[in-house]
Amino acid sequence: MPPSDARPIPNQETATARGRSSWTDLRAEILRRISDGTYAPGTLIPTEQELAAEFGCARATVNRALSSLAGRGVLQRRRRIGTRVALNALGASSKRALPVFREAIESSGRRFDSSYRGRHRAPPPADVLAVLFHSDPGRIVETRTLFYADGNLLCAERRWHDSAALPGLDIELPASTTINEWIATNVPISLIEQNVSARTAGDMQVETLLGCEPGAPVLVYETCFWAGTQPVSLARHAFLPGETLFTSIA
Questions:
Q1: Which of 59, 127, 158, 235 is 20 to 30 Å from the Cα of 137, by its Cα?
Q2: d(CA 137, CA 58)
Q3: Which of 119, 123, 92, 122 is nearest to 191 (CA)?
Q4: Given this model, what pLDDT does residue 184 score?
């Protein structure tokens, strides 16, 4: 049966107290409604005008919230048609196996090793908070890990995770288990976002970890994991010059 185009009637009781809402408040509420089925995959959601009236905010605020979700593939926006929940939005059909470095390295016939370098105490960068849909830097924890293949340094990982969404990462993991492997085993991932870019070690603040010059070019492999309707972990892997990204984890 094709998806219905019927828009759910706004629930006044679930609106944020009918006060003037920020665009992040509105985004969080839309994600909650997608999660609980109020806005089902494939259906049109209320118009900007209807949402602005419900939440007591400007249409520009609504537009910013919807555009943010559309940019991450949760919503689909079409001029003169409206805004629709993506058919695979945060559902099982979008779920894929998590990329695990151990498997990628060992499948190439090389020995895998890792060195956990602990937590980094500096506040998370603004772009990390934006990717994780968060405004509370106190909840975001950064960890750093080095990965090796046949004893040779391969890449440095900087990872940020939401400590409230992933409380299990606050415990001390076994030395033989990486954070990525813990997430793969313990967290029901609903969506995986992946990006590859060319940067410098200084841009990524990994020159000390990699033992290279700040201007050295590095290939950056970025992965964001979602649990339900919330992005909960962002990892950036910076590969040493001359190393190759494993296609098996892309």
A1: 59
A2: 27
A3: 92
A4: 84
